Amino acid sequence: MAPFASFVEISRYNLIPLSVTSLCGCPCRLLSNQTLIPTRRTPKLKLNVVFHGSKSVFRVRPTSIYVNRRLITAVARAEPESIDASNAEEEVDQGAILPTTKDSFSELQHKSSQLRKRIVFGLGIGISVGGAVLAGGWVFTVALAAAVFLGAREYFELVRSRGITAGMTPPPRYVSRVCSVICAFMPILTLYFGNIDISVTSAAFVVATALLMQRGNPRFAQLSSTMFGLFYCGYLPCFWVKLRCGLAAPALNTRIGAGWPFLLGGQAHWTVGLVATLISFSSIIAADTYAFLGGKAIGKTPLTNISPKKTWEGAIVGLGGCIATSVVLSKILSWPASLVSAIAFGFLNFFGSVFGDLTESMIKRDAGVKDSGSLIPGHGGILDRVDSYIFTGALAYSFVKILLPLYGV
């Protein structure tokens, strides 16, 4: 006897597998969770029950029959092969995995794009800064003044951010703008006068007087944040002008200077200030690069809570890279003369670099921001790029001006 598996022919177009036992079963007792529940009544339709290999046993005319819940339940309880549970689960899993895969791919593309921007703009900044350092004089000073102005603007915006203003009263906006302009003029005054101690003191006195005489209740937080801004953004960067342009003694032993074109200044262009600035800049770049790579590779022990991503392992690798760069360049440029001086110079550059980086990280942490700005794509703001140089200029100048002549090494 042929099996009783059958088909329901609806409108003579679609065949739905159906078993006779499922039609005869009680609709109130469901044997499967796969139940179809119609949302609205279905129009009249033509229903034929056809057994395997035979004609219709009976035919129901399209008179007054409707598809009700009982028929739909019976269809849902049809043969197990009519609904493949494993295929359904697989499709659900694929639907859940697909958005995750797309998100991961989009994140990977975003990181790749950020890395390309970082490399391209980093190379552009490096070439521009290298050219300004080689040119010296007004070119170097004006470029530094522009960076100081932008950095000062970012600093005072950080001071006015919500994270810092929640615990203090920021200086008025007009005072912040005036201080940014004063900071920008400091490198120029340093080049012109050679020393700006009196100018900085006078500017600080004027700004402090304006803060104390303002309407309302002057706060010490306003005075302290403004004075630190003048010192941090204006006074400290001026030591790079004093180092690059103020130390004009020729580096006679530098081989590159012997072959330097006469139209570009000849051998006299290669001064102690130029050589010291090149070594210091290169050492800072090496310290940042090696510290980043070392932290990514073997970094496990946090260096400080100020910047959790920095590690002791990365700092040690960065110190080694900084000292090695200083020693190699000292051999190429024939300055300083001794190995001990080159190692000491590299150590000072690394210390100033880390101290400046952590200081800016502390300001950003209190401000509740990741970057000081968004001026440079892939790098953040100006302060994010020059934080390692702010304190290093004063240390490098002191080393060349005081320590080398004092100890004669």
Automatic annotation (TrEMBL):
UniProt catalytic activity: a 1,2-diacyl-sn-glycero-3-phosphate + CTP + H(+) = a CDP-1,2-diacyl-sn-glycerol + diphosphate
UniProt GO molecular function: phosphatidate cytidylyltransferase activity
Protein topology in the membrane: Multi-pass membrane protein
Domain of life of the native organism: Eukaryota
Metabolic or biological pathway, per its Swiss-Prot or TrEMBL entry: Lipid metabolism; Phospholipid metabolism; CDP-diacylglycerol biosynthesis; CDP-diacylglycerol from sn-glycerol 3-phosphate: step 3/3
GO biological process: CDP-diacylglycerol biosynthetic process
GO cellular component labels: membrane
PROSITE patterns (UniProt xref): CDS
InterPro entries in the cross-refs: PC_trans
Predominant subcellular localization, coarse grouping: membrane
Cellular location(s): Membrane
UniProt keyword annotations, A-Z: Lipid biosynthesis, Lipid metabolism, Membrane, Nucleotidyltransferase, Phospholipid biosynthesis, Phospholipid metabolism, Transferase, Transmembrane, Transmembrane helix
PANTHER family: PHOSPHATIDATE CYTIDYLYLTRANSFERASE 4, CHLOROPLASTIC, PHOSPHATIDATE CYTIDYLYLTRANSFERASE 5, CHLOROPLASTIC
Membership in a protein family: Belongs to the CDS family.
UniProt protein name: Phosphatidate cytidylyltransferase
